[in-house]
Amino acid sequence: MVVHPHINLCESTFQTVYRGVLHPLFAAIITSVKQNHLTMPRTKMSIDYIISSLKALYGSEVNSAEIKAWCAMNSSNYQTVTNKLDEFKVSRGKWNLEVTQEKVEQIERTYQAPAALPAVEQNLIPDKDDTFVKFGNFNDIKKIITSNLFYPTFITGLSGNGKTLSVEQVCAQLKRELIRVNITIETDEDDLIGGFRLVNGETAWHNGPVVEALERGAILLLDEIDLASNKILCLQSILEGKGVFLKKIGKFVKPKSGFNVVATANTKGKGSDDGRFIGTNVLNEAFLERFPVTLEQSYPAPVIEQRILEGVALDLGVEDRDFCKRLVDWADIIRKTFYDGGIEEIISTRRLVHIIRAYSIFNDKAKAIQVCTNRFDDETKQCFLELYDKVDADFQMPEEKKDSALDDIAPF
DSSP label at 394? Predict the structure, then answer.
């Protein structure tokens, strides 16, 4: 009788273990197995049996050595078994019995899926503002961007003095793409770098604004950076010009030539001591150190500011150069008083533009100034109105409106 080699191996092993004496129980098992091999016809193994058997022995992930061992135990041909497991092969000599190759490719396609809106379909060059007047740090910003060198720039200054607008108009003139991100305390890595989004019912990777700027070689404008939390530290490597590794999809993004970062803030990243800019935070020192240059932006000189207001007024169809001049003089006096500590509020260039726009709507100087100063407390607002009354001799203080309902009540 020809004995199966596998059975001979088992028998000799058992005899060795038990010092040459074959245990009766093992002898009975071996005899039964021998008879089965001799009397039962060899059936073709199904793929389901192979998978379930392999998983029972080795788990869902198997390698070539484990399959060869299984083939030896089951008198199967290694090539035949691996051919049946071909759809479960994930790499050379490795199989995952839970995931087919088709599923692996589907996952890879999902990871490599484009953003919800492909970058090439967007024009990110800002529109040119014909009313814009160059002032302050405009020329310095232009030189930095023109140099094409990676040189992160921090711009600080009081609210409404043209920090953001200057960067936008530099990019508009140079025809450079600009991606502006408004930072808040809630801004995190997912908002900046990117993450998975649901697109047409499927999960797809969507680049964040930082990655878009890196890949395009665009200017990244981090507006109001001093409102950020410590989550902004995810930009450390980017501020060093080294790009970023996308952990979620295992991809490294290198910055394209021309990429640069500009940050704007009302403070210098040390918080607001006087409480004027509530919500601003003390930024990490290592983060601030990655900005090699800090530009301080002041309000424009009176002559420049008047040109700004006149340009806006003409664009709105308002021709009143005298009103523009009076507004500038009024704002200049208020700012000097503010810097001397006489008052706690200030009139920004943006606020003056608001007044010009209100004047174009209401065609009433008093009302335009009043509605645009209503944001201040009553005492400050009244003070500002009285000051303008002294600057402009033709100005008439707005009258308090009476309640129309009271007019309809007959006197007793």
Answer: T
- Those residues whose C-beta lies under 8 Å from the C-beta of residue 133, and which sit 6 or more positions away, are 300, 304, 307, 308, 311
pLDDT on residue 4:
46
Specify the DSSP element, H or E, that contains 327: helix 321-339
- 85-103, pLDDT tens digit by residue? 888 887 788 888 876 655 5
- Between 76 and 372, the higher pLDDT residue: 372
Please give the Cα distance from 181 to 220 (Å, whole number).
8
Residue with tokens 């290694």: 78
CATH T-level topology, domain 119-297? Rossmann fold (3.40.50)
**Residue ranges with strand state E in 56-208:** 61-63, 89-91, 94-96, 153-157, 178-182, 194-199, 202-207
Given the structure tokens 């302050």, which residue do they identify?
A: 136
Question: How does DSSP assign 244-310, residue by residue?
Answer: EEETTTTEEEPPPTT-EEEEEESSSSB--TTSTTTT--B--HHHHHT--EEEEE-PPPHHHHHHHHH
Using 50, 70 and 90 to split pLDDT, how confident is the model at 105? low
Please state the separation of Cα 88 from the chain's center in Å.
Answer: 37
For the chain, which residues make up each domain, given as ranges?
5-98, 119-297, 302-391
Does the pLDDT value for residue 277 go beyond 50? Answer: yes
* Structural element, H or E, at residue 25: helix 24-39
Q: Tokens in use for 286? A: 């290592």
Q: Indicate the pTM of the whole model.
A: 0.69
Structure token digits, residue 115: 């953003």
Cα–Cα distance, 23 to 399 (Å, whole number): 115
E strand intervals along 30-184 = 61-63, 89-91, 94-96, 153-157, 178-182
pLDDT score for 40: 43
Decide: 100 and 87 in contact? Cβ < 8 Å.
Answer: yes
Q: What are phi and psi of 196, to 5 degrees?
A: -85, 135
**Mean pLDDT of all residues in 123-152:** 95
pLDDT winner (highest mean) among 50-64, 111-125, 185-199:
185-199
Between residues 217 and 39, which one has the greater pLDDT?
217
250: nearest Cα among 284, 205, 294: 205
- Is the separation of the CB atoms in 175 and 205 below 8 Å? no
